[in-house]
Specification:
Gua_nucleotide_exch_fac_Ric8, 336 residues, Synembryn-A, mainly alpha, 15 helices
């Protein structure tokens, strides 16, 4: 691993990686007496003068694998010397296609393995968010393996949100602006809309939980601020998924609970933007789509009613201008 020959280094790093996965071998003595982490740090430092080189991949793989192994949790501080070099490589690297393929994926995994607490450079934070915008599927149902590929990036952003300056920068990019509120939150294509929608998406459980935690963190872990940022509908779901105790009194009631009387407290949308065109046009939906939308609305209003946040009759149980009750004779293919 200390050879001057890049082929020797690459091969030895791969062999060490095999020794660290699914084996009973304990590498702790090599950390404490064999300078294993220092050797990895030195090798990484040799690759920061130029653009990312493929030959560094085995070393980054080894670092991220060792760092993710709980057996070596007490040793991960030894990789802190590699932090500035990995950040430099990430800043220089072009965003590939797909955006979370190598080298970006390797660099993100390596950053997760290093227990840093300091603020990241603003350029790095912006780049990570830019990568997320490209990597996050617009429709999670079609995200395929997004739950595993995007989760490390979301986990890294969640960690960086502990730092004040980074948190402020993430807030500006990830929390709905007035422009986003021209549409009901969770219904648009911008990053804030997609994160809010993701926090309730059961098809990607890891991303769902990470999105909920990130939005909660950006809301200062304050239930009322969360409701202001995402609306009652999604906010109550996030509070439940994060096991955060709350009461109706904590959240307030009505539009003034949002801190802004011009915003619908349920959807987070500006009242002025709530036109007939912005409402679901059930007449143009298929029967299957109607049933799916009715079921989603029923669950949403039942959740709100049971928590005591609002005292309303579930509109799915009656005819209204927006939601139509579905009778048994209106469906041929469903059991209920």
């Amino acid at each position: 691993m200390q050879s001057n020959d890049t082929d020797d280094v690459s091969l030895s790093m791969r062999l060490m990686l095999l020794c660290s996965v699914n084996t009973t071998l304990d590498l702790t003595p090599y950390f404490e007496g064999g300078n294993l982490a220092q050797i990895i740090n030195i090798n990484i430092s040799h690759h920061t003068s130029d653009a990312f080189e493929p030959s560094i991949a085995p070393t980054l793989n080894l670092l991220s694998t060792l760092g993710a192994n709980r057996k070596y949790e007490a040793q991960t501080y030894r990789f802190l010397d590699s932090l500035p070099h990995i950040l430099e490589m990430l800043e220089k690297a072009s965003i590939p296609s797909p955006p979370l393929s190598s080298p970006v994926s390797l660099l993100i995994s390596s950053l997760l393995a290093i227990p840093f607490n300091e603020e990241l450079p603003s350029s790095i934070v912006d780049k990570l968010v830019d990568i997320l915008v490209l990597a996050l599927p617009t429709n999670p149902d079609n995200g395929e393996d997004a739950d595993s590929t995007v989760s490390p990036l979301m986990a890294l952003l969640l960690r960086t949100a502990n730092q004040p300056k980074t948190k402020s920068r993430l807030y500006a990019r990830m929390v709905a602006s007035d422009h986003d509120r021209t549409t009901a939150l969770g219904q648009g294509d911008s990053l804030p809309h997609r994160l809010i929608k993701l926090s309730a998406e059961i098809t990607v459980p890891n991303l769902k939980q990470l999105a909920a935690l990130l939005l909660f963190k950006l809301s200062d872990e304050d239930p009322k601020q969360l409701i202001t940022n995402v609306g009652y509908g999604y906010g109550v779901g996030i509070l439940q998924s994060t096991n955060t105790p709350f009461s109706p009194d904590d959240l307030g009631t009505g539009q003034m609970a949002m801190g802004r009387p011009n915003i619908n407290p349920i959807t987070g949308q500006m009242v002025a933007a709530e036109t007939a065109a912005s409402q679901p046009d059930l007449a143009e939906m298929t029967q299957e789509e109607k049933e799916r939308e009715a079921e989603r609305l029923f669950v949403l209003f039942e959740r709100l009613r049971q928590t005591g946040v609002v005292d309303i009759e579930n509109p799915v149980s009656m005819r209204s201008g927006h939601v139509e009750e579905l009778h048994d004779d209106s469906s041929d293919d469903t059991d209920s």
